[in-house]
Amino acid sequence: MDDITAQTGEGRRSRGEGRGAAARRASRSGGGAGPAMPYITRKIAPYEVLDEEGLQIIERNADTILEEIGIEFRDDAEALELWRQAGADVKGQRVHFPKGLCRELLKTAPSVFTQYARNPERSVQIGGKATVFAPNYGSPFVRDLDGNRRYATLEDFRNFVKLSYMAPSVHHSGGTVCEPVDIPVNKRHLDMVYSHIKYSDKPFMGSVTAPERAEDSVAMCKILFGDDFVENNTVLVNLINANSPMVYDETMLGAAKVYARHNQACVISPFILSGAMSPVTVAGTLTQILAEVLAGASFTQLIRPGAPVLFGTFAASISMQSGAPTFGTPEPALVSYGAAQLARRLGLPFRTGGSLCASKVPDAQAAHESANTLNMTLLAGTNFVLHAAGWLEGGLAACYEKFMIDQDQLGMMQKLAQGVDLSESGQAMDAIREVGPGAHYLGCAHTQANFQTAFYRSALADNNSFEQWEVEGRKRIEDRANALCRSWLDSYEAPPLDPAIDEALLAYIAKRKDSMPDAFT
Amino acid sequence: MDDITAQTGEGRRSRGEGRGAAARRASRSGGGAGPAMPYITRKIAPYEVLDEEGLQIIERNADTILEEIGIEFRDDAEALELWRQAGADVKGQRVHFPKGLCRELLKTAPSVFTQYARNPERSVQIGGKATVFAPNYGSPFVRDLDGNRRYATLEDFRNFVKLSYMAPSVHHSGGTVCEPVDIPVNKRHLDMVYSHIKYSDKPFMGSVTAPERAEDSVAMCKILFGDDFVENNTVLVNLINANSPMVYDETMLGAAKVYARHNQACVISPFILSGAMSPVTVAGTLTQILAEVLAGASFTQLIRPGAPVLFGTFAASISMQSGAPTFGTPEPALVSYGAAQLARRLGLPFRTGGSLCASKVPDAQAAHESANTLNMTLLAGTNFVLHAAGWLEGGLAACYEKFMIDQDQLGMMQKLAQGVDLSESGQAMDAIREVGPGAHYLGCAHTQANFQTAFYRSALADNNSFEQWEVEGRKRIEDRANALCRSWLDSYEAPPLDPAIDEALLAYIAKRKDSMPDAFT
């Protein structure tokens, strides 16, 4: 898979040895619901909302935050000591950064890297012109196929892994696709990582809720890919949230240290609800995000120079009436567009967006909010997209029907990213000459030759006449999504997994679980 | 209102005398549902999908179509004679254009103009950095507030005029906001134009279904604005569809001639379902659109040099399985982005987009398709947007609930278009210093000073907790839209209209109706 980075020519660092045993043994293809592209290579330009002057103002202000106000690294003596050694001014838990220190440290971070999947055809490029869609992350609840909203279970978790595996426009298996609340808190990460390995062959994410759970994630990947492969390549991308404003806490620092040490990728993501965790303005929010990312991302390079790290942004606003988070509104879109520009200037891969919404049901509110977020996500030139499918209710619930609707929209974005074909066939002058004024193109040779691939085909949109739609039962899109979801889950087939690896993973999990009491909080 | 064009400095031609009597007499403000901006002045850049090479390929190919294939001007001897005199090669009804002829003729067309409203505060700029949202156009059916789909009536027409009048983010009253099917075909234009004048004070559109109906539209505007004002200023914008591929028919040419002669604006719009009326490719479709617009728009300049004309594009695809039109898919988005670029290069104001969808109900399909179209419409830098609110079912039905949902989204676009505030307050460094690591911004001075205007506030999105949403009856957004729509219509108050003008208009309509038999087809 080295050609993933080679073909873009954008990688700063070279890859390690060839791919692991599991990857070599893995099956060639797995998506049950259509042909898959491993990731999007965008042929369209990113959309930008800040000019050079605006970017410089924000960068200068972020430097001021880093130097004058500082960032707190809480309850982690090792982190503070590392910063001291690097030349920062540490006062208590507050780290003040001399101008340019973070940027200097970040020079060792790759601008493009490959995250390997056990099926090499599913490995993804992260950075450059690549966009990778990953599903919903972190929901304790699900909205199930019977319309119930209830706590999520491990069965739900497996189902969402299966659906992401089958969705041709979901490139990544994600991480906590929902919280398997029926499994003890201290053990569920083992079942989650195993489910990603067992039920999918797409790349996935590790646990970040405690350093030892991060170690377990790495250990299981070593069983799958081999020890050396993991230490020299990236097989996990991991979500490290800043505790905005301007704080990194012990838990996130602990997980970040584990992953960086093992050469695994961290997505350093300020989690921002503007008005609460950041100023109520776009420029102020961008400034704080940049300062937080500069501190957190450069920290990974203190741990291991060259470890992959992403510039992450989770941007939402709050209702200034109720304090509730709001999604799909214009201000967070401007924040994300701007953050993408700042990330490109830093030379880091960028994460934002997804299909975010506050709605409790997959209605037009959910869709408008999701579509506003998703269109921005693609046009901003985002490299890694969490929450791309299934997110409902401000992330509190993973919704099966919405997953299906979202993955259809992801397919549209995949097509949009291909841009305008200006080949001779794309120009279609022969067709225009053949048809001429007043005739139609339906039967002409060019149409016949190209119609199969000409237009994105939605499996969920109803484009029939009103009368036909009535005859078919006046179904709304969520009804069609429900039926399609059931049929996918019915027809799911697991990608083959080497039985020896499977056995070793199960043995590891059993041993680890035996070593712990059950904890539910 | 001359400052509308003066302040942008982009107008090519000077305005006529001051505004008309009715406009001067009209009330200062009318929107009942919130403060209105007369139109959007975009502070964000347009998004572009074609580079210089691509644009030149398409322009060269369009010139080839114009010269070699030609465009048909059907059943209009006057049009053909005008083209002959202008130097075109006319064979039968087919007009072949020497290279550069159309572009030369278009040099007299303004790149920016003002469409005057009877309330001068509602006059809109069309072209340049302005974006004007107008409602749905042309639906024979409505989906009413009781959930019935039925033929539209004049009462529905009036209701949509009232709703557009009240919606702060709908800048224009539109034209055939629905077809008042209960009024004879040959008379309904009189009731439509009157309804726009009577129930709104925003700018509106004239009838294009027959030359004499266009003359009636102009005559009624003369009663409203005064004869001289109408002849020297633009008070009507009118939709002239090409009969794609490469045909203009008698009806549309007849209406275009009337409006251009009276200095009123024509939106020359190829109506394209790619795969049927144009090639199945984006570049081929763009080429044909450009050729059609060049021919149609330059024709208006043959009629009256300097008459305002827009580069219009209605882009959709068809399902290659059923032939049904599809909306909100990636390919028409690419077409519209590209067409906007071509229009800017021609120096013509651009029309496309709206809130298009194929869904039969205002569900997530409707919303995704509409949002995809609308985000593109704004980012393309579109100047005049038909179908911005209320469009359902491929345009066959005007939907009250969707109108309300759409107008909320238009408000979001209006905010997005303001871009990033980089003022000192926008930078918010004082707030960041005041709050510091680990605290929150809710109560800080900067937040208190700015929260009223910081974020777009949706009146329809539910951002509450799941529990609160349950207590409030588990409402979907269309339920909330239904209630809001009823409350708007209940609280509607007509803007004052000079009784003498009202009387004169009613007398004109009565006299005209008396002169015609009822026609229902």
UniProtKB/TrEMBL annotation, chains A, B:
The keyword Transferase applies. Residues 1-37 are annotated as: Disordered. The keyword Transferase applies. GO terms for biological process: methanogenesis; methylation. Its EC number is 2.1.1.-. One of its GO terms (molecular function) is methyltransferase activity. InterPro entries: MttB-like_sf, MTTB_MeTrfase. Keywords: Methyltransferase, Transferase. Belongs to the trimethylamine methyltransferase family. This is Methyltransferase.
